[in-house]
Task: inverse folding
């Protein structure tokens, strides 16, 4: 028996289990928006070593936070088809190994940001952990308003990037926070609608569970996506991008609104899936436009 197999049988899992524990896909989006915040905030030129350190530190804190979330919710994950195969519910990874991984990654990430970057970046990263685990995670089983609470830590990563580049939180950082905060709500509503049966079995009091016909989720998706229209047009006012990149971001927002409206009009799984995909493409393309627009002055 190989050493890897021995470790797996002892509850230490395989490398892929730790990637799943850290929610690697979510982590990749966090790193994208963190990098965007750093780049658009960089006053003269991008310090690549500082950017790499910021991304490593932020990624470690986010990985540990996601891991703790799965540790806390492992009993509920066993009840849902989408999550019962995760490392903890399936037994591939022991609770002790998961806790050790979570504590180590958060501590190392916080140290890298606080010492290697600046205290503000470290404090913001730690804020995401506290807000996610002590606010959002317990509220998911109590109120449908938990999604709004969860959007707060989810909107902080671009601010970490901004703080890492400048050492301060200027208006542009708060604009990025606002865009990420608003964007997350239609994104989450689409996910919730896709997995509403699972969330019901898991005992989560999300909007997709209490709003049985999906009417409120559809309506709120439209309303929140509409807020993105003035926010994207206002990007040049806080020094992010220029006129043409703002117009491009605005047009992308129009497309996002139309996708949300389609979900509101026909609250089917296909429409929810379309909104989810649109949200991912929207976020990535808007980040690209902001970065290109800022550095090309347009």
Result:
């Amino acid at each position: 028996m190989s050493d890897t197999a021995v470790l797996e049988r002892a509850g230490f899992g395989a490398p892929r289990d730790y990637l799943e524990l850290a929610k690697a896909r979510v982590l990749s989006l966090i790193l994208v928006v963190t990098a965007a915040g750093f780049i658009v905030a960089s006053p003269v030129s991008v310090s690549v070593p500082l950017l790499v350190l910021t991304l490593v530190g932020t990624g470690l804190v986010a990985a540990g936070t996601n891991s703790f979330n799965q540790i806390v919710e492992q009993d509920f994950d066993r009840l849902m088809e989408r999550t019962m195969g995760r490392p903890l519910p399936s037994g591939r990874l022991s609770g002790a190994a998961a806790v050790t991984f979570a504590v180590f990654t958060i501590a190392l990430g916080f140290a890298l940001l606080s010492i290697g970057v600046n205290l503000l970046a470290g404090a913001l990263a730690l804020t995401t952990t506290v807000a996610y685990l002590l606010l959002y995670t317990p509220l998911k089983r109590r109120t449908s308003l938990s999604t709004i609470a969860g959007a707060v830590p989810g909107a902080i990563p671009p601010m970490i990037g901004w703080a890492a580049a400048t050492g301060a939180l200027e208006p542009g950082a708060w604009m990025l926070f606002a865009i990420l905060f608003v964007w997350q709500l239609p994104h989450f509503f689409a996910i919730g609608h896709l997995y509403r049966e699972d969330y019901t079995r898991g005992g989560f009091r999300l909007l997709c569970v209490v709003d049985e016909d999906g009417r409120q989720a559809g309506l709120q998706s439209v309303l929140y996506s509409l807020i993105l229209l003035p926010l994207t047009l206002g990007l040049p006012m806080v020094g992010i991008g220029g006129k043409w990149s703002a117009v491009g971001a605005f047009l992308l927002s129009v497309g996002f609104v139309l996708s949300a409206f389609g979900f509101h009009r026909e609250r089917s799984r296909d429409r929810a899936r379309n909104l989810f995909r649109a949200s991912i493409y929207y976020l990535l393309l808007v980040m690209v436009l902001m970065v290109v627009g800022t550095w090309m002055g347009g």
Q: What stands out?
A: The two ends are 59 Å apart (CA to CA). The chain has a mean pLDDT of 92.
